[in-house]
Write a structure and sequence with these properties.
Number of helices: 7
Distance between the termini: 18 Å
Structural class: alpha+beta
CATH superfamily of the largest domain: Cupredoxins -  blue copper proteins
Shape: elongated
Number of domains: 3
Number of strands: 12
């Protein structure tokens, strides 16, 4: 994977984004030519200040015929090159559900072995070279899904499911963003798309299907400090909002944390995901992301417990 998560529509990494970039290039080139032509006519008019012109033909030609021809041509061109929209996914597509919340992303896969739902948050992992068919919805207000390097923008409306197809040509990491103002923390609502080799992705998906209790990283040989973190997580009722499959009952109020340690970032792109970041996020949520639904915990959880919770969560991979 690339070391930097690109968020540029000018660095297309898939067929849909490449098509959109091509249309953008044509529009920019055409606008540049028209601008140059208009400036040339302006210079000619200034130079021939005392001459006479047939205003009727200029109005009809430049103000009516020329715009009509250009706009019609652009309409045909854009329709011919618009990205594919399908009411049903391609036969070989990976189907993923994405639900936008204020202000994070819920991502849902199907376990190919059992059909059970696999839930993650704020990170969309996909196999490189394979089409991905997204079902997009919103749990509260209007959001918008946009990963510029991979696809166009699609609004996410409450009570309605939209569809978007994308594909990454190569392994890498790309940053996406909510592109519709949705409240106080709209600017801190990022989504990272991680494309991996198909075999690597399949292994990752199989690991994500396991419960936390059956994960090799949570074997009985873990240190007492990490075990204290699990106990503190339950004692302080973090499981009232967060699911950790195999450890606590299901709750959809906040992101699923069953495999939170495997994610690149915390808080929808707010912090890098490591022990220090986890402890900082749990303790100072409102300082880092004011208005988030999760309260800061520094006043009610002692420092030793915070560090233990962070150490335990980091093992959930």
């Amino acid at each position: 994977m690339s070391g930097t998560a690109s968020q540029s529509a000018l660095q297309a990494a898939g067929p849909v984004a490449e098509t959109l970039l091509g249309v953008t290039g044509v529009l920019v080139a055409g606008a540049t030519l028209i601008f140059v032509a208009v400036m040339a006519l302006l210079a000619l008019a200034v130079r021939r200040r005392g001459g006479t012109v047939n205003a009727r033909w200029w109005v009809l030609g430049g103000g009516l015929v020329f715009p009509a021809v250009v706009l019609a041509a652009l309409f045909v061109y854009s329709q011919w090159h618009k990205p594919p929209w399908r009411v049903a996914p391609p036969r070989d597509a990976l189907i993923v559900g994405v639900t936008a919340h204020m202000w994070w992303w819920e991502v849902r896969y199907r376990d190919p072995a059992t059909g059970a739902e696999i839930v993650g948050a704020n990170e969309l992992r996909i196999p490189a070279g394979r089409p991905v068919y997204l079902g997009l919805s919103s749990a509260d207000v209007i959001h918008s899904f946009w990963v510029p390097a991979l696809a166009g923008k699609m609004d996410m409306l409450p009570g309605r499911t939209q569809h978007l197809q994308l594909q990454a040509d190569r392994p890498g990491t790309w940053r996406g963003q909510c592109a519709e103002f949705c409240g106080e923390q709209h600017a801190r609502m990022a989504l990272h798309v991680v494309a991996e080799e198909p075999a690597v992705f399949e292994a990752w998906l199989a690991a994500q299907a396991r419960t936390a209790a059956s994960s090799p990283s949570l074997s009985p040989s873990l240190s007492p400090a990490i075990e204290r973190g699990r106990e503190a997580f339950l004692a302080h009722r973090c499981n009232a909002c967060h699911t950790v499959r195999g450890v606590s009952e299901e709750s959809r109020l906040g992101p699923d944390l069953t495999h939170v340690g495997s994610r690149l970032y915390l808080g929808a792109g707010t912090l890098a995901n490591d022990n220090a970041g986890l402890a900082q996020w749990v303790a100072h949520t409102q300082q880092l992301k004011p208005g988030a639904r999760m309260p800061s915990s520094q006043a009610r959880i002692d420092e030793a417990s915070l560090q233990s919770i962070a150490a335990w969560l980091s093992q959930l991979k």
